[in-house]
Design brief:
alpha+beta; 2 domains
Length: 129
Amino acid sequence: SKALNFINPDELSMQCILIALNRFLQEKHGSKMAFLDGNPPERLCKPIADHIESLGGQVILNSRIQKIELNSDKSVKHFVLTNGNIITGDAYVFATPVDILKLLLPEDWKEISYFKKLDKLVGVPVIKC
């Protein structure tokens, strides 16, 4: 239950667990499913953020990207956040659902073969109970 909804089992309806298991088991390789040994922010996200920061990077949370601005060579100039802040860096990583990524993708990138593959990528609904 912690891997699905980040809450304790006694606070979660097992209907959530059954829905998740049913969904996974209907997939071709569903029997190979696995869950983290704790909640994703602590067991997955925190180690990644710690690693980025250990290399001198900065992790900015709870911020939404409004636009990806490009340089003339089509590389990233900066991110514009919805609060108006500008984020610049040498390299960028941002976590977003695939549908949002498709909306944020700059027009100049949409014809690049690497990004054209996004057309076939379908987002998977997040399990929420």
